[in-house]
Design brief:
With 312 residues, the protein is mainly alpha-helical. Helices cover 76% and strands 3% of the residues. The protein has helices spanning 24-51, 58-75, 78-87, 94-127, 132-135, 138-164, 181-185, 193-226, 231-264, 268-293, 295-311; strands at 11-14, 91-93, 173-174.
């Protein structure tokens, strides 16, 4: 069949986690709780960084943007799954599936780039503290954010347009709780070789570049910290980047674990459950990790809550 902008399907079926009716209320309650925690926690981080002038620094600038990306990240997939459970339906329209797939890829890549920008910020702060203000100026921070958005949008748009050229087989069922591009490509009736090449090349290239940059930055940070003579100085230096390093490890560790488990086992349920770690759990834990380990965030959040309480 010649590639073309035609499809034989009007909707997809998201199989989700389980087809057992008695488990649906449990799944609904669990994911609704995680989504509300994710949304509330990340929103509080954003409001705290905006309201407190002491947090108007590059570190918290990138943190607030990461929180925004995490809210959008989870909002791309979880609300639709909860809506389907309430309606006792597993359907998603063709257009809805493409939109979900596009925005999911966009915010995954945006998370990657923001984590890299935060790693560079910590590298400059610890390895070149005297030049920190000059290097991490507002112009550079804005440029890094702009590049992150542009690369994320372009990669997602390219993959989305390549999916549009495919003819998809009738009645496709996706063994996932959202439209993942790999699953959609499996239902192509026309040649999807180019799609796979572009998808894996771009994902590996962008993922490799960001992860390598993060590892390089933190290797330099560790060596710089080890050269600090006082134990108090080492602790202070580690505490400034410990939260970010933990989030990086959690995000990349769970993400790589999903793809490794997918390659090692054909069981789609295992892959679906494993993907929850980096699509839902990691964005949910981010604000708690930062707020629990960061005194500035704690003070800003307390001030924010106090202000809201007294206004009411």
């Amino acid at each position: 069949m010649e590639p073309g902008n035609h499809t034989q399907v009007s909707e997809f079926i998201l199989l989700g986690f389980s087809e057992e009716a008695e488990l649906q209320p449990l799944i609904f309650g669990l994911f609704l709780s995680m989504y509300l925690l994710t949304f509330t926690g990340n929103l509080l981080i954003i409001l705290a960084t905006i309201s407190d002038s002491h947090l108007h620094t590059p570190m918290y600038f990138f943190l607030s943007n990461l929180s925004f990306a995490d809210i959008c990240f989870t909002s791309t997939t979880i609300p639709k799954m909860l809506w389907n459970i309430q309606l006792k339906s597993k359907a998603i329209t063709y257009e809805g599936c493409l939109c979900q797939m596009y925005f999911f890829m966009l915010f995954v890549h945006l998370d990657n780039f923001l984590l890299s920008a935060m790693a560079y910020d910590r590298f400059v702060a610890i390895c070149h503290p005297l030049h920190y203000t000059g290097i991490m100026n507002p112009q550079l921070c804005g440029f890094l954010l702009l590049v992150s958005w542009l690369l994320s949008v372009l990669d997602s748009l390219l993959n989305g347009l390549l999916v549009l050229r495919l003819s998809l087989c009738a009645g496709p069922e996706i063994p996932h709780f959202f439209c993942e591009i790999n699953q959609v490509l499996e239902h192509a009736c026309s040649d999807n070789f180019l799609n796979h090449i572009v998808l894996y090349f771009a994902s590996c290239l962008l993922g490799f570049i960001t992860l390598t940059f993060i590892l390089f930055s933190y290797s330099k940070i560790v060596f710089s910290i080890l050269r600090i003579s006082s134990a108090r100085g080492k602790y202070k230096a580690f505490s400034t980047c410990g939260s970010h390093l933990f989030i990086v490890s959690l995000f990349y560790g769970t993400g790589l674990g999903v793809y490794m488990s997918s390659a090692m086992t054909p069981d789609s349920k295992v892959s679906t459950i494993a993907s929850v770690m980096y699509t839902v759990v990691t964005p949910m834990l981010n604000p708690f990790i930062y707020s629990l380990r960061n005194k500035d965030i704690k003070v800003a959040l307390l001030s924010l809550v106090t202000t809201i309480t007294f206004r009411e």
